[in-house]
Sequence to fold (167 residues):
Amino acid sequence: MAPTQASIDLTLAHPIDLVSRFVARHDWLLCQQEHNALLAEIPGQWSQYQLAVSWQDSDEALQVICRIDVKADREQVGELALLAALLNQQLFIGHLALDMATCELELRHTLALRGAGGATPEQVEDVVDIMLGECEQVYPAIYQVVSGALSADDAATAVMMVTEGEA
Fold:
């Protein structure tokens, strides 16, 4: 039996409301919320991440940005840009972008929802969960490059290496 339009409408909600509820369920710090945007601090294993989410009514798109809290010196921008390019080849959702003003990397993704009338909780949760997982995966490489311990090539190889089994 196909779902009725009424039952479909009940599962869809404003994407910012869904992200806000997801943040609250995890007891993450919601720093700021407006009708079409929110900012939250997310604790990770390696770092605090800043999650910035905005809804664009005209495009019916949800932009999710996860800022990775590691600042590079201006002299390291080239190596950090190379690292981003190498890591982007392996990311499942989103892409790493270098913020030239702050010399920080951020993971960015846009979820297009044109014609959907909203989003489902599962769509929002999946995007946020996957992006946070990817931030956790790439953080050690970013840290190693910024601290000068590894080159971009070596750092990318180390964190993207597929491991098997258990220790």
Remarks:
- Residues 121-146 form the longest helix (26 residues).
